[in-house]
Amino acid sequence: MIADLNEVSILIEGLDHPECVAVHPDGSVWAGGEAGQVYRISPDGKTKEEIGSTGGFILGIAFSPDLSWLALCDLKNKCIWKLDLDNYSLVKFSEGTPIEKINIPNYPVFDNEGNLYVTESGEFRKVNGKIFKIDPNGITQVWHPGPFNFANGMAISKDQDCLFVVCTWLPGVERVGINNDGTAGEREVYATLPETCPDGVVIDSEGNLLVSCYAPNRIYQIKKNQEVRLFIDDWEGHTLSNPTNMAFGGPGFNTLYIANLGRWHIAQIQLTVMGLKLPCHR
Q1: How many C-beta neighbours within 10 Å does residue 91 have?
Q2: Taking the domain 5-281, which CATH number applies?
Q3: Which of 161, 205, 206, 221 is deepest in the core (most CB within 10 A)?
């Protein structure tokens, strides 16, 4: 079933090519810009505030489970920043391990214990992506050495027993198990999306994946049985324009917010199913 593109609306304009979006439990929508900006947007989309900047290029963002800080993946500075949500101060949280530095920190995902998984995309057109894991104290390890074919967006399952990893040049989604001791488990190709450049992924409350594609301007649904369906298509590329990261929020937690790197806005659509709540929403 294809969602009606006319049901997609613009939450807010005037952002600097946002790649990322995250929703705070208070309803505010947060996004980043290509010059390092961090935006806080009111739930109704009427106002926005630039609360800080890293001077880099913000890729993925994620709220910590205790909502004390926001993780920022910075392409230019090749690090993960820790943005304190009380005073908006910024400190570098991780640049990788002493031996293996992060080249393209693309997307962060927290587990319930506050561990942060981060996709390291590797190098453009080279299959050398990996996944880092950073504990609450900033101690960093290579959690899975890959190699992944440009590891990009990521989502953790409801039971936190696996990670879904978007691999842009696969192109498709891989599933990596999380063992009981926290180590990486079995890895498999979960679904392929031929002739696309998938970027972001979220999970709904029924366990289906929604995968946004930088190109073409589409969102696909991957059902629990791994059947792939086209969900939204925008051949003009105006409402969905290089859609990248997505996040659930809204009063019923069934609003899907979509960042559009190709333009200046966050889009939104009301779905009939709720999103899977992240650790910060639980």
Answers
A1: 10
A2: 2.120.10.30
A3: 221
